[in-house]
Design brief:
It is built from 2 helices and 6 strands; from the N terminus they run ββααββββ. By secondary structure, it is α+β, with helices and mostly antiparallel strands.
């Protein structure tokens, strides 16, 4: 019976004290084209961190809307701007489950690199834009 040899790299710690970054396999999907693999490194936000961040955005949203309403002397058109912008920011804050640390991927149609900044908050699927062929593929994370 053969024994199985397990290699542990130098500096290997069995119990890690900080949360490990999730490195899922990612696919860039554009209907009508073959799926393109992407290298994506992300860190998952905890539900409590997402809740605090979204509550902070909601507080800023309501405060800025009320302040604009009072400063512009009840002008409904000026009040609608922070109302809609705040609603979009709060929604996007709640949807951002992952923070991108590294991304490398190409458009499935034209094979040009697609940009996704490090530090971006994304959910899955995440909408991408190829500025070369102007198609809009989606990024799917597969754990």
């Amino acid at each position: 019976m053969r024994s199985r040899i397990v290699h542990q790299p130098r500096g290997f710690r069995y119990m890690e004290t900080r949360p490990a970054p999730a490195e899922p396999t990612a696919w860039i999907v554009l209907p009508g084209h073959a799926d393109a693999p992407a290298h994506l490194s992300v860190v998952r936000y905890s539900p409590l961190a997402r809740l605090y961040r979204t509550a902070w955005y909601a507080f800023l949203w309501i405060t800025s809307t009320v302040a604009t309403f009072l400063v512009t002397i009840f002008d409904p058109f000026m009040t609608s701007m922070p109302l809609f912008i705040g609603a979009v920011m709060t929604y996007r804050s709640w949807r951002g489950r992952f923070r991108v640390t590294e991304f490398r991927g190409a458009c499935p149609r034209c094979r040009e690199p697609i940009d996704l900044k490090a530090g971006s908050r994304i959910g899955t699927p995440h909408h991408l834009v190829c500025y070369n062929c102007h198609h809009e593929p989606e990024l799917y994370l597969a754990a």
